[in-house]
Amino acid sequence: MTLNLLTDSPLIAFTILLTVIFTVPPIFERLRLPGLVGLLLAGIILGQNGLKLLDSESETVNLLSDIGKLYLMFVAGLEIDLEQFRKTKNRSIVFGSLTFLVPLIAGIIAGRLFSFSWNSSVLIGSLLASHTLLAYPIVSRLGVVANEAVTVTIGATIFTDTGALLVLAICVGIHGGNFSALSLATLLGGLTIYSVVVLFGFDWAGKEFFRRSGDEQSNQFLFILLALFLASVGAQIIGIEKIVGAFLAGLAVNDVLGRSPVKEKIEFIGSVLFIPCFFVDMGLLINIPAFIKTLSSIWLTLVIVVALIGSKFIAAFLAKLLYRYNTAEMLTMWSLSLPQVAATLAATLVAYQAVNPAGERLINEGVLNSVIVLMLVTAILGPIITARFATFLQLSSTGFETDKLTTWWGNSEDQLADKNDELFTVIVPIYNPQTQRYLIEMAALLARHESGKVVPLAITKAHVNMDNPELATALDQSKQRLDLARKISQEFEVEVSPAIRIDDDAALGISRTSREQNASLVVMGWSRTTGLRARLFGSVIDSVFWSSHCQVAVTRLLSSPTTIRRIIVPVGDLTRQTIGAVRFAQILADVNPAEVVLLHVSDRKTPPTLVEKFTSQLSDIAAKSQLQVNTNIQIIKDNDIARVIIRESQAFDLAVLRSVRYRTAGGLAISQVTTQLLQELKCSIVLLGEPNS
């Protein structure tokens, strides 16, 4: 009796959910299984078919799961790369149509085989038609995102997800009863008008609000949340499912948010709380005993899994024939379009909960269980196949010969043209007189190599009254630091232009000055801000990474850069950004001079042929440098990447790292390897951050 009273308490239910979210995913990730699998399993164990500690019908679970479902679709809309879609729009639409229609037909056939109604069969087909880019971090790490087959598949996501949700809205409307041709036309008309209003209206309103609100991130965060729930409520008002509104809201504010800090905070809140609650609730609905007892459910699951895998393969094969892709490109497209997570799970739950006046569900428990199994199979199979075949995709070698940082670090042809016409400018924010010498020396070495100039920058905290004595004192201290910076720069015979800026926000002051000076690089010192506060509100480094228009080099220099003789560069992929880090190390080695070692830690299971191919490509990149720099390659087979890099770096003066962030269906994941290296490396460090990384 006491146990029942406890489990009925909303506070107890919320506490149990938080405990599960906090403890279960890390355990499963250590076992190399997706954390969401652990959440589903926890739901099964804690639900009414297990320990009965959580009830999917409780108000707490219902509310959090509902928000999680909306958040999942909102994030799915946010994570669709509209820029990639625009680059290959026509081919993305064609492949999107193929990978939508073929699985849709396969699902309809599967539904009819098991005597489901036409409406339910079409709904089952739509569940197979979408896909989640679960393996995107893999192609990003391998540096093949720019390959056309990959960009086409990424672009196709917008078509498949939108199409699947529109079919869901129609099927749920039909299932509700009182269906006629007029009601269908009314539903489609309302859906069209609503979609236009959300996509264009929210986009316009968001841009206007962000323009007027400036840097007020808290208000911007609330505006985005309001947009999400307004779109969801609006969808309900016109009689369609609210997850359709959430997805469209994500698409609408996609351009508004870009890669801003607000976007990370939106995804962070969703990925640590609401989306995990949704997965736990999905686990609560799974009835394992009933699933095992019913032979037809097992056959249904098998047919659905085979139909999905086969139909996605057929779609990729047809795309290969149409656009003359090679086998590796076809298999990569197939594997990228396999995982069924975000839209599939959200739509499945909606369909399962849709009950007509006669009390009949749109899909039964058997389909729900089958989709859960489908999600688990494809979430594991898709990334494995991607990792196997994406390594064979071609890497463009354009510009490998370049030894100018300005060329490597241009983001577009226009930016390249601008930077080639401008003087190479290095912004150096200075605050601590104890460490500023090494920062200025690093900037001066790079500026001298590029025939550029150094701009030492002192940020002074603004006051309400500009005649405040404290402000005057701070300005005098800034001038003293800048005088020292000028003397250090002149030792290296480079042009120096000291600058003082009065600003409320140090990070934005740095970014704004770098934009005003059309800087090519920001060299800044280390920030010790870590932990939850930095994760929620960001450190100065995080803010500069997000807001800067140019590359940022964050340094922890233990000795003068002029004494550096051995530089290690961990190389995990062959992206343009990684090769830029290699060039950075080679240029720094050229001015000292020093030796560069490119370290690649390969998984023990990686086939020798792939290791040889990677080594060959890396050797080619290193050899194409026109600089007279001794560059060696070291390949080590080990599963613990961070441990190997930390061990090998002990013999080096400097490690050049990249700030790597991978986007996943559940939000943002920051490279744990980089985090561990920053904490444990004993040598000097340069951490390179891409613009808006």
From TrEMBL:
<feature type="transmembrane region" description="Helical">
    <location>
        <begin position="298"/>
        <end position="319"/>
    </location>
</feature>
<feature type="transmembrane region" description="Helical">
    <location>
        <begin position="151"/>
        <end position="175"/>
    </location>
</feature>
<feature type="transmembrane region" description="Helical">
    <location>
        <begin position="367"/>
        <end position="390"/>
    </location>
</feature>
<dbReference type="Pfam" id="PF00582">
    <property type="entry name" value="Usp"/>
</dbReference>
<feature type="transmembrane region" description="Helical">
    <location>
        <begin position="268"/>
        <end position="286"/>
    </location>
</feature>
<keyword id="KW-0813">Transport</keyword>
<dbReference type="InterPro" id="IPR006016">
    <property type="entry name" value="UspA"/>
</dbReference>
<protein>
    <submittedName>
        <fullName>Cation:proton antiporter</fullName>
    </submittedName>
</protein>
<feature type="domain" description="UspA">
    <location>
        <begin position="425"/>
        <end position="556"/>
    </location>
</feature>
<dbReference type="Pfam" id="PF00999">
    <property type="entry name" value="Na_H_Exchanger"/>
</dbReference>
<feature type="transmembrane region" description="Helical">
    <location>
        <begin position="120"/>
        <end position="139"/>
    </location>
</feature>
<comment type="similarity">
    <text>Belongs to the monovalent cation:proton antiporter 2 (CPA2) transporter (TC 2.A.37) family.</text>
</comment>
<dbReference type="InterPro" id="IPR006153">
    <property type="entry name" value="Cation/H_exchanger_TM"/>
</dbReference>
<keyword id="KW-1133">Transmembrane helix</keyword>
<keyword id="KW-0406">Ion transport</keyword>
<dbReference type="GO" id="GO:0016020">
    <property type="term" value="C:membrane"/>
</dbReference>
<feature type="transmembrane region" description="Helical">
    <location>
        <begin position="331"/>
        <end position="355"/>
    </location>
</feature>
<feature type="transmembrane region" description="Helical">
    <location>
        <begin position="92"/>
        <end position="114"/>
    </location>
</feature>
<feature type="domain" description="UspA">
    <location>
        <begin position="564"/>
        <end position="687"/>
    </location>
</feature>
<feature type="domain" description="Cation/H+ exchanger transmembrane">
    <location>
        <begin position="20"/>
        <end position="388"/>
    </location>
</feature>
<feature type="transmembrane region" description="Helical">
    <location>
        <begin position="181"/>
        <end position="202"/>
    </location>
</feature>
<dbReference type="GO" id="GO:0015297">
    <property type="term" value="F:antiporter activity"/>
</dbReference>
<feature type="transmembrane region" description="Helical">
    <location>
        <begin position="222"/>
        <end position="248"/>
    </location>
</feature>
<keyword id="KW-0812">Transmembrane</keyword>
<keyword id="KW-0472">Membrane</keyword>
<dbReference type="InterPro" id="IPR038770">
    <property type="entry name" value="Na+/solute_symporter_sf"/>
</dbReference>
<keyword id="KW-0050">Antiport</keyword>
<feature type="transmembrane region" description="Helical">
    <location>
        <begin position="12"/>
        <end position="28"/>
    </location>
</feature>
<dbReference type="GO" id="GO:1902600">
    <property type="term" value="P:proton transmembrane transport"/>
</dbReference>
